[in-house]
Design goal:
The chain is α+β, with helices and mostly antiparallel strands and 189 residues long. A hairpin with a 5-residue loop joins strand 2 and strand 3. Helix 1 crosses helix 2.
Length: 189
């Protein structure tokens, strides 16, 4: 959690930025902006202070070789290169082992935990896959993340409407060609 002292630092920095771009920090529309930005950063970076393991809830269930898929998990994150948001959906598949399954809602919490920190999409995708592989010990994991990046849409290339897709495959999802083809076809619908 961002301390009150650090919130004040953020507020001061936002005031400095507004002044540096030529704004009057005392005009009515901007008076509360530094505080709003500090509160937003506290929310957007909440993953820095939390451990995704808190969201693990495993159940004993006779597992088999059947794939479990959760699609369209919404997330928002902050690009660490420009401190602009990127927003999208994560798709996760895994094949349980050792008679252990995870509560499906936990996938959304795990995605959110990793997304709520300064991030790049490539690392976000790998972090989720690595975490699930390490903590579920499944036969395989696949994570696909699709997102639109504000830093690409409104600045630089100004490629509005473009999306970026990343994938991370672990275990049988990576090693076995048939399983890889199946999971990729199911996750990219």
């Amino acid at each position: 959690m961002i301390t009150e002292e650090n919130k004040q630092k953020i507020m001061n920095a936002v005031r400095d930025i507004l002044e540096a771009v030529g704004e009057d920090v005392n005009r009515p529309g901007l008076i509360e902006t530094p505080k709003r930005v500090a509160n937003m950063y506290e929310e957007m970076f909440a993953g820095l202070d939390s451990d995704a393991k808190q969201h693990l809830k495993l159940f004993d269930e006779r597992s088999n070789d059947e794939m479990v898929i959760v699609r369209d998990i919404p997330f928002s994150s902050m690009c660490e290169h420009h401190l602009l948001p990127f927003v999208g959906k994560a798709h996760i598949a895994y094949i349980p082992s050792d008679n252990k399954i995870i509560g499906l809602s936990k996938f959304a919490r795990i995605v959110d935990n990793f997304a709520k920190r300064p991030q790049v999409q490539e690392r976000l995708t790998s972090d989720i896959a690595d975490f699930l592989e390490e903590n579920l010990s499944p036969k395989g994991v696949a994570v696909i993340v699709e997102a639109e990046h504000t830093c690409m849409n409104i600045r630089g290339a100004k490629a509005s409407g473009s999306s970026t897709m990343t994938s991370a495959l672990r275990g049988i999802m990576k090693k076995d060609a048939r399983t890889r083809a199946e999971v990729l076809s199911l996750l990219q619908r």
